[in-house]
Design brief:
Elements: H1 3-19, H2 42-47, E1 79-87, H3 90-101, H4 108-115, E2 126-129, H5 134-140, H6 144-156, E3 159-160, E4 164-166, H7 178-185, E5 189-191, E6 198-206, H8 210-221, E7 226-234, H9 239-243
Parallel strand pairs: 1-7, 2-3, 2-6, 6-7
Antiparallel strand pairs: 4-5
Helix pairs in contact: 4-6
């Protein structure tokens, strides 16, 4: 991007912050200074609850110290693991919904800020956003995971790679069981061009891990040596759902 383009874009954002009321999208309260991020206030960010310890060192799921984690025991060897920033509770869920379905692309900046402490992002990684199918991309107009990756890149450094592609349209995962999610995504990803040896997948939400596992399979088969992943939110799974992940 030419420097003048970035300057023009930043100027438009600054003008927007002065002209439009600085109200938080989540609680509608004023955000304070017009130069502050007008989308999510500091109070709402504090409501985003971090995942508790202890957690599985691989999939990041909170577990009892003496319990075996069933979520990640069948993951491929090269898939190092996943870390999530916050629980997907009401405020965080609303933020994801605004990004994903209501066109608020710039809220990705607030979500990315919450993700910055995640360990896979520490060393200027190569980020690979989970791609959308062509059908869903046309309907939505953008990929929310790519928006998150771009926001992370602006704050953490590194680079974004488009080496992962979606090979077919899949059903929405929202109402599917863990087994149905895995079947729905089987063979849904492939690689294109050169695949970096170490990559970090980026997505908005971790539910059962089916999407990230299938994407990791494709990257490892395409030449990656090590794959990690980060997400903004993590859904709290019912115990019955976790027990089926065998």
């Amino acid at each position: 991007m030419p420097p003048w383009t970035a300057t023009w874009s930043e100027g438009l954002i600054a003008l927007e912050r002065w002209v439009l009321p600085g109200a938080c999208l989540l609680c509608q309260d004023p955000v304070g200074s017009p130069l502050a991020d007008p989308l999510v206030c500091a109070v709402c960010r504090l409501r985003w609850r971090r995942l508790p310890e202890p957690r599985c060192v691989r999939c990041g799921q909170p577990i009892d110290l003496d319990a075996d984690c069933r979520i990640c025991r069948d993951w491929p060897d090269g898939f190092r693991g996943v870390q999530s920033a916050v629980w997907l509770e009401a405020s965080a869920r609303r933020a994801v919904h605004l990004l994903k379905y209501e066109g608020w692309r710039r809220i990705a900046v607030s979500l990315a800020e919450a993700m910055l402490p995640l360990e896979p992002l520490a060393d200027r990684p190569t980020l690979v956003p989970i791609p959308l199918s062509a059908t869903r991309l046309r309907a939505r107009g953008y990929n929310q995971s790519a928006e998150l990756a771009a926001a992370l890149l602006g704050r953490r450094g590194g680079r974004v790679s488009s080496c992962l592609v979606r090979t077919r349209h899949t059903r929405t995962q929202t109402t599917l069981t863990p087994e149905e999610r895995a079947a729905n995504l089987a063979g849904a990803f492939a690689t294109t061009g050169a695949v970096p040896s170490r990559v970090v997948l980026g997505d908005d939400v971790f539910t059962t891990g089916a999407t990230l596992v299938e994407a990791a399979h494709a990257l490892l088969e395409g030449g990656a040596v090590e794959v990690s992943a980060v997400t903004f939110g993590r859904a709290e799974l019912p115990l019955a759902a976790v027990s089926r992940m065998v």
